[in-house]
Amino acid sequence: DQLVAGERFAELQTGLNQINARGFSNLRISGGGGRDFAQLRDSIANDQFTFGPGAALANINGSEIQLGEFEQIRATVTQGYDSAWFNDSSGNDQFFQTPQGAGMFNNWYDNQISGADLLNARSSQGEDTAQLTDTSANDTAWMHQRQTVISSDLLRTVVEGFKRVNLVANQGGQDTVNL
């Protein structure tokens, strides 16, 4: 199944039919298992996306979209000051952040967002890893025992609880890391 959803709309294409919903302020959609894909779109407002294994909750300009049982979830944000939170599974997850986007995945789910301004990722169990990449601006990174932050005028990313965090500075700018 394939889903496209945004501010007060959803279009679900299954193997048998197409379902359209328009004008609803709350949407709850289950992929039902299998190889399901969902695409979320932002609004002109400041939107918030929360991802978990095979699931997402999007608050898009007053509309709430809940997704469950989706193998792949993608969100594209282009306007407003948008934020995303990623939560891990009980397995070994990987989180990545680049200037273009971020995501968290393992063998059975893959959640990604592009264009967000604020990113947060939390690891609570498993042997999770994170890779954070600088932007073309002047980035500053802080690495503490349980938390790593990398921030610039373009993007701020906070990761907590990961067993391993890699910082990569290869996009230019005058970057600083504090250990």
Describe, in plain words, how this protein is organized in 3D.
The protein is mainly beta and 179 residues long. It has no helices and 20 strands. The protein has strands at residues 2-6, 9-13, 18-22, 26-30, 37-41, 48-52, 55-60, 63-68, 72-76, 83-87, 94-97, 101-105, 110-114, 118-122, 129-133, 140-143, 147-151, 156-160, 164-168, 176-178. The strands form two sheets. The protein has a ten-stranded mixed β-sheet, with no helix packed on it. Strand 11 (94-97) and strand 12 form a beta hairpin. The radius of gyration is 17 Å and the shape is globular. The N and C termini lie far apart (45 Å). The mean pLDDT is 93.
Supply the key terms.
mainly beta
Q: Average pLDDT across residues? A: 93
Quaternary class: single chain
Beta-strand proportion: over 45%
The coarse overall form would be: globular
Helix/strand-derived class? mainly beta
Q: Separation of termini?
A: 45 Å
How would you summarize this macromolecular structure in one to three sentences?
With about 180 residues, the protein is an all-beta fold. The protein has no helices and 20 strands.
